[in-house]
Amino acid sequence: MTFPRLLLFLVVMLGSKHLHADVYDVYLLAGQSNMDGRGDADELSETQRRCPADAMIFYRNPPHASDGWSPLATGFSVPPKFKGALPSTKFGPEIGFAATVARSTTANKLGLIKGAKGGTSLRVDWNPGRAGEPDSQGPCYRDFIETIELATSELTYKGHSYVIRGLLWHQGESDSRSSEQRYRMRLTELINRIRQDVGSPDLPVVIGEVFDNGRRDTVRAAQRGVGSSMANVEVAPARGLTTWDEGTHLDAQSQWQLGQRFATALSKRSNSKRLKPANGPHEKPNVLFISVDDLNDWEGSLGGNHQAQTPHMDKLFHESVLFTNAHCSQAVCTASRNSLLSGIHPSRSGWYASTAAMRKSYDEVMGDHKMLPQYFRDHGYETLACGKVFHQGVSDYKDRTKDFWDETAPTYKIPKELLARGDGYGGKMFYPFPKRGSQIVDRYGEEYADGHSLCYGALDRDDIPGGMMFDELTADWASEQLRRDHTKPFFLAVGFVRPHVPYTAPREFFDLYNLDDIQLPDVPDDEMADIPMMGKSIAYGTLPAGDHYAVVNLSDSYWREMIFGYLACVSFADAQVGKVLDALANSQHAENTIVVLWSDHGQHLGEKKHWRKQSLWEESTRVPLCIRLPGQATGSSCSEAVSLLDVYPTLIDLCGLPATAELDGASLLPQIQDPKTPRDTPVLSTWYYRNHSVRSNDWRYIRYRDGTEELYDHRSDPGEHTNLAGLSEFADVVAEHRRWLPKIDALPAGDDRWEGDKLDRRVREWTENESVPAWLK
């Protein structure tokens, strides 16, 4: 932490909180000397110098550290060779801007965050570099983003809320030798990156046109070009302004007028999210609802595996609000999908697994409440579905399918004789298996029949019935729906199966990777030493000797081969997602469709010596989740812990539908508007009956039904290798997370009592016989 940042942190933390909370409309001011301000305050009238009572400024011009938020006044500028403490005798456009904005009808307070410095260039000093890599960024850009973080953190700490309403930019004199094309490219990149870094992809921007001294025509043309070509960007003209030196620095009256022009230009733009189409037969936005089965964080944008090649999803993530700390309610297909689509947590519904008893309880659980697609259908949407949306496909409830969907994809038929080439697992969606069957069963025999799923293989087209995999047919059907005319807004659900086991895909996706280069996850030999018995029982899996034992003992390379297969399936799924997104981009619906992409849960590839989902650790619960609004081209990321339960209420808000009281999640609209908006509630994940995980921003707490616990600090231990639950210094953290456990756990739907399951029986056997497998110790 730099010294100025440390100093401000101490000031904030040692200061007292406000007695009441305020809402701030925040504006960002950046650039070089005319933004910093070279006007002489003594040349303003008394009325012009008088600032709105509720206006505050957070000013920082390194090496001048900030004292935090201060009442707005003249003097927040650093002229050349200035050695004293602020205030100086100078001011910038913030004074005229604040006076003009204050005349609006808003009841919010005004906050200005200013980080400008004279003599700085866009080429070097304001170079935005690479996202998340401060060392690649110019010093002014790096300092400005840090200033925004400091300022907004102070507001949040003091209990206030805020909305960043716009960016005011005045710079270009130092880049007068740049070509028009080069300056325009750099300015466009800067605006996009600031929008990304503050989490507001359509942030209104006003560019202050540089003064015309006869030698800045290319910069001025570039500024006007950016203003006419970029969405939500205006230009404040320099026409009629005057300078006190030789054509560079605006005099006092021109500085004040420039502030007025910034406010006037900004009033033409809005920070609200546009969800209505520019043209079309209906007002409400469409929804493209994409799910990818068993997809963990192995995408470039989420960083789970740097070898993964996922260009189409990464592009979507970069255009969306990407929730980088999203988690499922339960890490198994049926329970996760039922919770998202119903909006009800498994601990309340009792929907923990795929059983006939669960399906019989539909009316008992739902009552008059509606599943997400039915809710949209009942409120005027055309609903369409293809692929794996529910666990069994477009519906787990055959008598409800027509309530959910107006139209579904045709059934995918596979001849029985071809299914027999597999091994009895899966059916139409998961087929085909490797041509020679499961490597686990081939090595260990039919006693290991559950190992049919732990297999991989590259497929030639002749190995695939009809030459097309289920996901390819799904992508084609969805693409066709996007090319159609629709007289009503549509809700199109598209469910892809891969990378669900078996890890088979067309050979070209295996060719993207080199098996010898595949890297294994970091799994310490003593990984399970501090894990309670119930956690060990979950990790054990279903195979007679344990899943991990079977994989690592099949051959020296089989662990790597399984990852090889999973990566190929991830890239295959990515290609299908890309096909659908391309169809949308080339359709008449491109500018009026919300895109949501999610996975039902993650997937372990040997982490925690586990090979399924079906656990309470990070690899199981963490999921990709992104939401792209209509017309959005530049994205942002939100690191707050969020739940898949939040998707239902979020879509209701985004589409302007009436609220429903049954939902357990909370709308993500505040985070979509400002990704730094904090969340008050951590994510509750469940593994079957009375085993729970609470995931907050920095911690994961696990409590099993026998009372044993785990605790991990994600700031220092993202791999969850060190269980801190038994250490006294973390007792308060454990207590804080315990309070989020459910007060009542519903019995598994359809059961009248609970007598334990195989997890409990395995724990009892290990305990009584002192026989925990050596690889789990």
From TrEMBL:
Task: Tell me the ranges covered by the Sialate O-acetylesterase domain, including all copies.
Answer: 24-266
Give the enzyme's main class according to its UniProt record, as a single word. Answer: hydrolase
Hydrolase among the record's keywords? yes
InterPro entries in the cross-refs: Alkaline_phosphatase_core_sf, IDS, SASA, SGNH_hydro_sf, Sulfatase_N
Which GO cellular component term is one of those annotated? cytoplasm
**Signal peptide feature range:** 1-21
**UniProt GO MF annotations:** choline-sulfatase activity; iduronate-2-sulfatase activity; metal ion binding
Cofactor needs: Ca(2+)
Does this entry carry the keyword Magnesium? Answer: no
Check the record and name the Pfam families matching this protein. Answer: SASA, Sulfatase
Residues covered by the Sulfatase N-terminal domain: 285-656
Q: Which UniProt keywords apply?
A: Calcium, Hydrolase, Metal-binding, Signal
Please report which protein family the annotation says this sequence is part of: Belongs to the sulfatase family.
- The protein here is known as Choline-sulfatase
Species: Allorhodopirellula heiligendammensis
